[in-house]
């Protein structure tokens, strides 16, 4: 039996998203530094350390965006794992889908840039099994 649940859509602007993303980046930076130390503190591998830390810490699910008329649709395929406090954060030109970190520090964080600015009042987000579907009307309409 498929279960349909509503995802909390937090209608926050870009300024409210900044602390969320800053926290994620700080966690990645901390882990990247740990990797740097584990590899003998050899300089010149900053990007490799960062990407390895990001892979260990962040789940970035596949997201597809398309428009139909004045509406924007986003479909995100979630991993089949337990994600706590899953939320869709909304700004006029961007969605951020996030979860709290699990016991291993792994969390979902996906930034989705939208092709047009949207009306914040029109956003609808729902989850069906491991798929989140988000729709919104263009602010132009």
At a glance:
By secondary structure, the protein is α+β, with helices and mostly antiparallel strands. It has helices at residues 14-38, 46-57, and strands spanning 4-6, 9-10, 58-59, 62-68, 71-77, 87-91, 94-98, 107-113, 124-128, 131-137. The strands form two sheets. Strands 1-9-10-5-4 form a five-stranded antiparallel sheet, with no helix packed on it. The chain has a five-stranded mixed sheet with strand order 2-6-7-8-3.
Distance between the termini: 37 Å
Classify the beta-strand content into a percent band. Answer: 35-45%
How do the strands line up in the largest sheet? 1-9-10-5-4
N-to-C SSE series? Answer: EEHHEEEEEEEE
Number of helices: 2
| Largest sheet properties | 5 strands, antiparallel
Mean pLDDT: 89
The number of distinct β-strands equals 10
Shape, per Cα inertia axes? elongated
Structural class: alpha+beta
Please give the share of residues in helix: 25-40%
Show unreliable segments: none
Radius of gyration: 17 Å
Q: How would you characterize this protein structure?
A:
With 141 residues, the protein is α+β, with helices and mostly antiparallel strands. Helix content is 26%, strand content 35%. It has two helices and ten strands, in the order ββααββββββββ. It has helices at residues 14-38, 46-57, and strands at residues 4-6, 9-10, 58-59, 62-68, 71-77, 87-91, 94-98, 107-113, 124-128, 131-137. The strands form two sheets. The protein has a five-stranded antiparallel sheet with strand order 1-9-10-5-4, with no helix packed on it. The protein has a five-stranded mixed sheet with strand order 2-6-7-8-3. Helix 1 packs across helix 2. The N and C termini lie far apart (37 Å).
